[in-house]
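I'll show a typical protein example:
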Amino acid sequence: MNLNVLPSDIFPWNENFQTGIPVIDEQHRKLVELLNKLASHLAYGVGKPELNTIFGELTEYAQYHFKTEEGFWNKYLAADELSTDHAETHKSFVTEVLKLRGALDTLATEEVIEEIVVFLTHWLAFHILESDKHMAKIVLSMQLGLSLDEAKDKARTEMSGALRVLIETILNMYDTLSTRTLQLMREVAERQRAEDKLRLSRKVIDSTLEAIFITDENGMIIDTNPSFCLDVQLEHAQIVGRDVRQLKPSLFSQDKADEIWRTATESGHWAGETVGRDAQGEVEGAWLALSSIQDAQGVITHYVGVISSITHLVKRQQILEVEANHDALTGLPNRRLLQDRLDQAITHSDRAGRVMALCFLDLDGFKQINDTLGHDAGDDVLRLVAARLGKALRAEDTVARMGGDEFVLLLSDLDGEESAVQFLNRLLKDIAQPMSIYGNPAKVTASIGVTFYPRDQSSPEQLLKHADAAMLTAKREGKSRYHFYA
């Protein structure tokens, strides 16, 4: 049987699998290539000798890759528990592959084939996304000068929150994608041999929760399953003959449609997350797998799409992204988001030849309000000050809360250092305006330390320290004032 008739990857490579370390990413792609080759042969039912050869090739290359990878990690994490545990997972993988290879005598059952494919795809996706990405983040941070403990903390933070949701989403989608793709490949391969299998597969497709559509070579729908009809709220007869891109515009947004169809046409497959708005204007997230189908001459005749809804995960990810990057009390950017904005501002300053002012602000008299009126009143004061700061800034500026009663202001794209003086004078007056907290009069002022880039050619961390030092000088000089870092 010609395995090139219906090109389709059980495990389509995705940019989310990039670790940022070229030699490891290159070898991961090779492992994925071997996995897809093995899965295709399993699906199309080739002879045991050929399967043994491919199993052997996969096992040998995996061992070669593991040796390369462990050598790289050990340069930075020698004798560390992470590196030791990582090596143990490599050993367990090789052991399991050899065990699966020994089960080839029972390949007459579909259950064994699916067990092999699901294990290999899930293990590889999980290992790259969860383990290798984590290790790579640590190593890349150490290459930038962080200590091992600092690199671990940074990696742990980056692998939590929104990224954790993304990993969960990708793993769930790859589980579904691998089994669905395997089923479709087997069904097409056996079409001329068993009409009863086609009838069975139709029942499976009709009963699945995923929305499935089949189009001609121009994207015009020729068939769907009931889930797709329910999704677009139209009868099957009303759908056939219509352009799927018009029926599901949330899947094929203007910025992605060309890429999706071009990749599916040129490579045989496109899989990824799409986010758009449905007919009611609600955010709709989905995982789309679109494959092209070719005839014996290699001419594309159809496209098959499988849609898995991830709207709830997209919304959860958006919530987590806000929580991860913003202060819970004031809603302002936190230290993490400030770091990103500061890096961008420095880049812009270097490129455009403009001045940036980094201002470290600490409230005067805030402790007295906490002590006399209580912490709830103190929280209200912080929210009011945050609102005043936000109102005073321009759209291109950033204000972040560092914790307690400390804030940082990032003034970008200034003509010169003198441009900040008028703003700072006005800001001191705005902050000092009287407040009413639970009917009680309250007032705070601010001491502000300022450092200017590019006159202060320091790293982002040092810029913050310099602004903080200037703020302490402002407090010593009498408070309710600003001081420039010399």
About this structure: The chain has 17 helices and twelve strands.
